[in-house]
Amino acid sequence: MAAAEAADIVILCVGLDATIEGEEGDTGNEFSSGDKTDIRLPESQRILIDKIMKTGKPVVVVCAAGSSVNTECDPDALIHAWYPGSEGGKALAEILFGDVSPSGKLPVTFYESSELLPEFTDYSMKNRTYRYAENNVLYPFGYGLTYGNILCTSVEYRDNTAFVTAENKGDIPCEDVIELYIKDYSEYAVRNVSLCGFERIKLDAGERITVKIPVSERAFTAVGENGERKRYGDRFTLYAGTHQPDEISSRLCGNDCVYTEINF
Questions:
Q1: C-alpha angle with apex 200: 60 to 103, nearest 5 degrees?
Q2: Rounded to an integer, what distance in angstroms lies between the CA atom of residue 31 and that of residue 44?
Q3: What residues does each domain of the chain span?
Q4: Largest CB tally within 10 Å, which of 7, 62, 195, 257?
Q5: Which region, left, alpha or beta, applies to residue 31 given φ > 0 means left and ψ of -120 to 50 means alpha?
């Protein structure tokens, strides 16, 4: 606390380790067979975060963990560093000092509360993963901010290919990831959307490009009650953006995905 009081900006590093999460047999939390008991930080870290936030200083929270974590705070910036290895400190410094613009995207859904998750013994997909989520989403699959402002302005589909126009509306060179999602309206479709393509791009300030991203035939299929995967529907919506086409992602990123309708 003394260090925080004397600082202009607080970079607060928190997170988990092998005593809290891991694989069964190679972690110290044998009481849970390697699994976390919840998605919160340890109590001592929650107390520290609360005290640091009350100082009124600008706070950057850096969370090192290998899974979804709700830090239960609203800092000026939040970096989920995963377990970055020996060069992690250098990579973090390059991001914090602006030498590199972050461009990572979440590969899993970050949930608000473990209490709202389905029971472990429930083998259905209901309210699990971004494709079936109904609520309890803190940060969506595919979400991640940059220092730049790359926007997708249009998307077209033909010959199993998406043609996405993207523009860097910011004032610095920037990398980002174009994400394609497809919405199937057939009776066997997933509840939400499915990721069906992505492409990392780098644009100079003001630069505009059109990117070709393949879309496989599998993207238009679903699994029926008998386990057969095939195309059941003839109407689809293809979305393109730097995030999912959901309300939470649009609010967090400050922009919406573009889309086109596909009919067979």
A1: 0
A2: 20
A3: 2-100, 150-263
A4: 257
A5: alpha
Q: State the chain's mean pLDDT as an integer.
A: 94
pLDDT, one tens digit per residue, over 172-227 is 999 999 999 999 999 999 999 999 999 999 999 999 999 999 999 999 999 999 99
Choose the CATH number for 150-263 among 3.90.550.10, 2.60.40.10, 3.10.100.10, 1.10.1200.120. Answer: 2.60.40.10
pLDDT at residue number 19: 82
Centre a 10 Å sphere on the Cβ of residue 108 and count the other Cβ atoms it contains: 13
Size (the chain), residues: 264
Where are the extended beta strands (E) located within the chain?
A: 10-15, 59-64, 77-80, 110-111, 137-139, 150-158, 161-168, 174-184, 194-203, 208-214, 222-223, 229-230, 235-241, 258-263
Please compute Rg for the chain using Cα positions: 21
Residue 15, both tokens: 């997170």
- Number of C-alpha atoms within 13 angstroms, CB side, residue 209? 16
**What letter does residue 22 receive in the DSSP assignment?**
S
Residue given tokens 């479709």 in the structure block:
189
Q: Enumerate long-range contacts of 205-209, CB under 8 Å, 24 or more apart.
A: 205/168, 205/170, 205/171, 205/172, 205/173, 205/174, 206/167, 206/168, 206/169, 207/167, 207/168, 208/153, 208/165, 208/166, 208/167, 208/168, 209/165, 209/166, 209/167
* C-alpha span between 192 and 257 (Å, rounded): 15
Question: Is the pLDDT reported for residue 26 higher than 70?
Answer: no
Match 């997933």 to its residue by tokens.
190
- What is the CATH architecture of 2-100? 3-Layer(aba) Sandwich (3.40)
